[in-house]
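Quick one, probably user error.
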């Protein structure tokens, strides 16, 4: 059931979403594009990058290969969409996995657990989870750790799932290392001076999915949306500007980066399924045994401890982490005045700020920033 076999119509995207999500019988994945392989396709075209804007030293600082060595692709009919097949140096991904699991969920950043727990209970998600995740399986069904219950984290300007907006008074400093990584990716793709102002991290368990949506809350759509994936693989569906446009299916593997810009910035997209890492891909466990030889004094990265990697490794053996990074404001732009009802009173304690749309039962939320959930927006 390839995308081109489904005619445009009211439920075209939804039908393909449900096709790839179903468990029994398992769907046919033969029509899913895989950029990690040299599979000929009339849709796939080379993407033009600008290696001059990012020096080898700048790329190395954030764990990236020289831009000239990146494998970047575009898709016919999707101008502005760029797929970069794992541009990370061998040994670099474990650092970013550790950041996603240990560092970025820390306060003052906001996560889904804040909606149901006190801030003191979510103050140290990593510290409260490492003991259980470090122990060998007991054979008994154990309660999920806080880390395993994590579904999303927001950075910088914190996205409000209720109003589908950002605001000036709900902001915490954006991580400098992730800003630098995003800056280099954007510059190589033709967007120098990109400002990473907001981020949403999604944490996918084996049965998680991401519903059909558009990321349109940012005030400036001329700047790209960047997506970084680590851990298990996934099926990604990229549609059109209309909800009924049938999507194209593609694999996302660990280390892959997607850039949605230009006419592709406001396309509908979704993620119906997590799939195991292909056997011919280098496991991240092997990468941590082969640290990047490029870890120099100027790098923002650092070697991770064996204990930290033990926890990270156990987590990503069955899970996936995705970071989407956005520039919210254009040059000279500012936020409209926020109504008092939606003003932030404390980190994670916002009036009118509930859990993300994907955790609710309504299937009618079509245009919003997405978060991962077992209960998807569109089913």
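Nope, works fine. Designed sequence:
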């Amino acid at each position: 059931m390839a995308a081109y076999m489904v005619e445009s119509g009211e439920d075209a995207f939804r039908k393909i979403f449900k096709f790839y999500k179903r468990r029994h019988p398992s769907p046919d994945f033969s029509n899913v594009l895989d950029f990690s392989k040299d599979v000929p396709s009339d849709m796939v075209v080379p993407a033009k990058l600008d290696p001059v804007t990012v020096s080898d030293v700048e790329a190395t600082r954030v764990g990236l290969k020289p831009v000239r060595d990146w494998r970047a692709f575009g898709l016919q009919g999707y101008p502005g969409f760029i797929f970069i097949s794992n541009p990370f140096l061998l040994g670099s991904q474990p650092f970013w996995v550790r950041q996603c699991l240990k560092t970025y969920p820390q306060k003052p950043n906001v996560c889904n657990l804040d909606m149901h727990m006190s801030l003191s209970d979510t103050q140290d998600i990593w510290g409260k989870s490492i003991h259980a995740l470090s122990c060998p399986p007991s054979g008994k069904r154990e309660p999920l750790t806080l880390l395993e219950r994590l579904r999303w984290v927001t950075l910088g300007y914190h996205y409000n799932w209720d109003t589908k907006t950002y605001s000036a008074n709900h902001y915490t400093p954006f991580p400098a290392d992730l800003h630098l990584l995003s800056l280099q990716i954007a510059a190589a793709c033709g967007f120098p001076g990109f400002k990473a102002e907001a981020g949403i991290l999604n944490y996918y368990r084996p049965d998680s999915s991401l519903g059909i949506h558009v990321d349109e809350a940012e005030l400036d759509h001329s700047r790209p949306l960047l997506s970084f994936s680590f851990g298990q693989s996934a099926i990604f569906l990229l549609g059109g500007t209309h909800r009924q446009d049938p999507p194209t299916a593609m694999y996302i593997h660990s280390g892959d980066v997607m850039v949605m810009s230009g006419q592709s910035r406001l396309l509908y997209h979704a993620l119906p399924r997590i799939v195991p890492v292909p056997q011919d891909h280098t496991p991240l466990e092997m990468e941590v045994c082969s640290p990047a030889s490029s870890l120099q004094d100027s790098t923002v990265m650092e070697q991770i401890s064996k204990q930290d990697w033990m926890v990270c490794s156990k987590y990503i053996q069955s899970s996936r982490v995705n970071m989407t990074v956005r520039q919210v404001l254009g040059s000279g732009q500012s936020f409209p005045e926020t109504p008092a009802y939606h003003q932030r009173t404390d980190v994670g304690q916002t009036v009118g700020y509930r859990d993300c749309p994907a955790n609710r039962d309504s299937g009618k939320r079509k245009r919003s920033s997405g978060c991962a959930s077992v209960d998807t927006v569109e089913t």
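The chain has one domain: 12-326.
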